[in-house]
Design a protein that fits this description.
Blueprint: H1 2-47, E1 51-52, E2 58-59, H2 62-72, H3 77-117, H4 126-134, E3 144-147, H5 151-157, E4 164-167, H6 168-175, H7 179-196, H8 209-226, H9 228-238, H10 246-265, H11 271-284, E5 288-290, E6 296-298, H12 310-315
Antiparallel strand pairs: 1-2, 3-4, 5-6
Helix pairs in contact: 1-3, 2-3, 4-10, 7-8, 8-9, 8-10, 8-11, 9-10, 10-11
C-alpha cells in the first residue's frame, strides 16, 4: 500500500514537471521580455541623468537643472524645471508601466506553476521522512570524552559523578568558554534535566516525551543565554556521537530547533514561562518522539509511556550519513 501511494505520488510529480516545463517555455519567455523592457526603460532614464527610485518614481538633481539652463541658454530656472519635469513624468510613466508588466508576467508564471503542481499528492508521512533525512550530523572523529574533566568545574563535578560524556567537538567549544559561561552552561544543562525528569508519568526519559521536552527546554534556555548561533552549532556537535541511531539523532535535532524557535519568539520569557511554552509544544505535536515501530511520530500522536523500548532501539539501530558540522567560530552573545 505504501509503495503504491509513493508510486502514485511520483507519477503526479512527473506530470507536474512536464506541465511546469511547458509553462516555463511559454510564459517564461514573456517574463524575460517584460523584465528586459523594464531594465531598458530604467536605463534610458538614467542615461539622461534622471534619478530613478525603487518604485519607479523619477526625479532630477540641482546639477542637472543647472546644466539644462546652461544648455538651453535661458536665465529662468522655471523654464528648465518645466522641461525636466515633463521628461521625468514621461520616464516615470514608461518605467511604472514596464514594472507592472514585469510583475504581471511574474504573477502569471507563478499562477501557472501553482496549477501545474496542484494535483501532486505527497505520500503519507512525508513530513516526518523529511525530519529524519534533514536532521543528521556527521559522527565526531574525535570520539567521546568526559566534561568537565579539569579546572574548577572538573574538581567539583568529577568526585560527584556529575561529569558528562560529550563529543570531542563539544568539549572544545566548552573549553573556549570563560569560567562564568561554563558554570552557566552546566547550570542550564542540569536545570533542563531536573525539570524534565518526572514531568511525564510512565516515561523512561529517552526517545519519549520527557526526552523531547528536555531537548527543547535545554535549547530554549541556551538560546537565551548564549545566542542562537552558538546553541545551534553546539547542539549539532552534541549529536555527533558515533553510536547515535539516525532516528534518535533526527528527533533530538528537530526538538532542539523547536526549543530555539520558542526562545527567539519569547526573548523575555522566564524559565517557568519557557517550561510552559515547551510543554505546550510537546502536547501540541510540534516535537517528535520515537514510536514502537522505531520510527518518528509527532509527539501528540503517541501516548505517554507508549514510545519505543530504548534498549531495543539500541540493539537494532540504523544509521544514516550525516552532514559535517561547521566550525563557524561563533561565540556566546
Amino acid at each position: 500500500m505504501k509503495g503504491d501511494q509513493t508510486r502514485t505520488s511520483l507519477s503526479s510529480v512527473s506530470t507536474a514537471l512536464e506541465k511546469a516545463g511547458t509553462v516555463l517555455t511559454s510564459a517564461g519567455t514573456a517574463l524575460f521580455t517584460a523584465k528586459t523592457t523594464a531594465v531598458d526603460t530604467i536605463a534610458n532614464a538614467e542615461r539622461e541623468r534622471f534619478l530613478v527610485g525603487e518604485t519607479g518614481d523619477v526625479g532630477y538633481s540641482e546639477e542637472l537643472l543647472a546644466w539644462v539652463q546652461q544648455e538651453m541658454g535661458v536665465a529662468s530656472w522655471m523654464v528648465a524645471h518645466s522641461v525636466l519635469y515633463k521628461q521625468a513624468e514621461s520616464h516615470r510613466d514608461a518605467i511604472k508601466a514596464a514594472l507592472r508588466a514585469a510583475g504581471d508576467a511574474a504573477e502569471s508564471v507563478r499562477t501557472e506553476l501553482d496549477r501545474a503542481f496542484e494535483d501532486v499528492r505527497l505520500p503519507p508521512g512525508w513530513e516526518l521522512e523529511a525530519v529524519l533525512l534533514e536532521n543528521q550530523a556527521e559522527a565526531d572523529p574525535g570520539g567521546m570524552v568526559k566534561w568537565p574533566e579539569d579546572g574548577l568545574l572538573g574538581m567539583i563535578a568529577g568526585p560527584l559523578g556529575k561529569a558528562k560524556d560529550v563529543t570531542a567537538a563539544e568539549a572544545e567549544m566548552l573549553s573556549n568558554l570563560g569560567l562564568g559561561d561554563q558554570i552557566r552552561f552546566y547550570r542550564i544543562m542540569t536545570e533542563a534535566e531536573d525539570t524534565a525528569n518526572g514531568m511525564y508519568d510512565g516515561d523512561v526519559e529517552q526517545d519519549d516525551h520527557t526526552d523531547a521536552f528536555r531537548h527543547a527546554y535545554w535549547n530554549a534556555l541556551m538560546t537565551q543565554e548564549f545566542g542562537e548561533d552558538w546553541t545551534t552549532e553546539f547542539t549539532a556537535k552534541h549529536e555527533g556521537r558515533p553510536d547515535n541511531a539516525s532516528v534518535r539523532e533526527a528527533m533530538d535535532l528537530h526538538n532542539n530547533e523547536i526549543g530555539r524557535t520558542i526562545a527567539l519568539q519569547n526573548p523575555d520569557a522566564s524559565p517557568e514561562e519557557l517550561q510552559g511554552l515547551v510543554k505546550d509544544a510537546v502536547e501540541r505535536g510540534d516535537t517528535v518522539v520515537i514510536n514502537q515501530d522505531r520510527e518518528l511520530s509527532w509527539s501528540d500522536d503517541v501516548e505517554i509511556g507508549q514510545t519505543v523500548d530504548s534498549g531495543e532501539l539500541d540493539n537494532r539501530a540504523e544509521f544514516l550519513p550525516g552532514s559535517p558540522v561547521g566550525d563557524d567560530g561563533s561565540s556566546p552573545k
